[in-house]
Amino acid sequence: MLPSVVAAYAAEGFRVRLGSPRLRTSGVHRWGHDRYIPNFERLPLGDWGFTIRDFYVLDLLHRELKPKNALVIGNAYGMSAVCLAELMKPICVDVIDAEVLGEESRAASDLTRRVARRLDLDLHLHGGFSPQDLNAACRFEKYDLVFVDGLHTNEQIILDYKGIERRLADRTAVFFLHIGNLNMDVGWDEIKRLAEPIGLRP
Amino acid sequence: MLPAVIRAYEQEGFRVRIGSPRLYTSTVHPLGAARHPTARTGLALGDLGFTITDFHLFSLIGAELRPEAGLIIGNAYGVSAITIAEALRPISIDAIDAEVDGPESAAAADLTRRVARRLDLDLRLIRGFSPRDLPGACRFEKYQLAFVDGLHMSHQIIADYEAIAPRMNDRAAIVFHDVGLCRMDEGWKVIRERAARLGFAAHECTFTDYGLTVLLRNMPRLDEMLAITCGGLRDRNETYEIGHAFFNPETYVERPVAVLPEGARIAFYGAGKDLELFRDFIEENPDTVVAILDDDEKKWGGALYGIPIVDPVELPALCATAVVIASRSAERAMRTRIHRLAPHVPVLPAPEGRIAELELHAQPQPPMRRESQQHNQVRRESTAPLAGRTA
Question: Looking at the whole model, is its pTM more than 0.80?
Fold first, then answer.
């Protein structure tokens, strides 16, 4: 999404794709491993990533909110966390990822850390589960921005929301990825119900 | 795209829609008159607008280029011009729009001006045709940014490019809208070849909804990013379409590309007053124009602009590579006669008022729906021989 981010991934040997009208998925791939995703094939970790439209929402949030810190749940190859951190510099970003895909997940986390170092980002990535390991992942009491992109189930996003609710600053935004795409409508409805009494507007 | 822009349109009584994965079209229409374009209702002037992915491209350009002056060809309801001006403040924007859609165009231009005033933008919009009226639209000698979004035809974007290229700064970006969607591949191909000679790097922004293309000069960061992230417009059989709810662009076919190949032999049909429109072209290309056909036998044996006037039955013997119809009133009859006499010779239709462009390009017609398989065949045959270098 940002030239500096794309260049940093390229310097680490990875190619960022931005998607297209025919292939909406944006992704991160090792150079020379460019691939098209046929229907029904399992998406690898680097696919189905952060898109320009997602970036656009963050851009709008940044223009109005100017957040000083952010919490990201779910990382994969780190595009969203890195883009967020680069766009909103000098923001401090805490990230938690369960690394459930074993070696590939750990390699993706390491890649994220290397890219963050290249870009001189204040990004802290912690291996762990949300919500139980959030305490260890969080360097701050309150967050101006939360980005939820972990396990994409109705139950999990409700747990994620409950885990972050007490950590939300007075002026804050919470961004949930893939609600529509992955049919998490039930979870989203419950989150809206929980959020309204504390002044969050869905 | 930007809250301030959406609010300003809202205050003027218009709603900006920013599209969705199912219906990409971003639109502007009066509040309370929201509509989804369908195959039945067709697109209105406010439809098919500036999208989030377009906005993203301009944001990236703005971040690296910090342009002080921008030139925009084509305005409609002004969302692109307004958004660019707002996002890239304190840029000065000059915009030109032909307002060919009558009162709606004029109203849309007025709306643009009112919104610009609300937002205190330095945006000047004039009515006129590109490239003919471009000098009157330009307040600056040089521009860092240009956005070509006028008539979506290959010949037109070439003409637009030729007019704006000399006005571009050493460090500059030129963006072409809808190249993928409107199949302006031939025009883009010509432009990127010519622009390379001026030091521009060409990119096809496959991440955009409608297949934007961009020329960059001395913008290494964005140049590198687009080289890494974007493929070609057709590399993966991309189908730039206006959402699933609207027509398939397969049903549209572009008229012949009006660039003349080397060795072209052009005959004009009609020695009447409409031929005057082509006078500059004829006088500048005496070796290319081989004859003027006319049905009036009294004119046979004469000449106009140094070109002999002959009986149309001589067309097969002329070895013409194309016939340009120089009559707006008798186009259909002339076209029929040409097909009867020399069915293999492509026909360029009569001009529709944009005379100045004929100095360089014969005038094709706007895109139209395919009428039949037979028609498609004729169209494909007629297009092929004309693609190539501009005379």
Answer: no
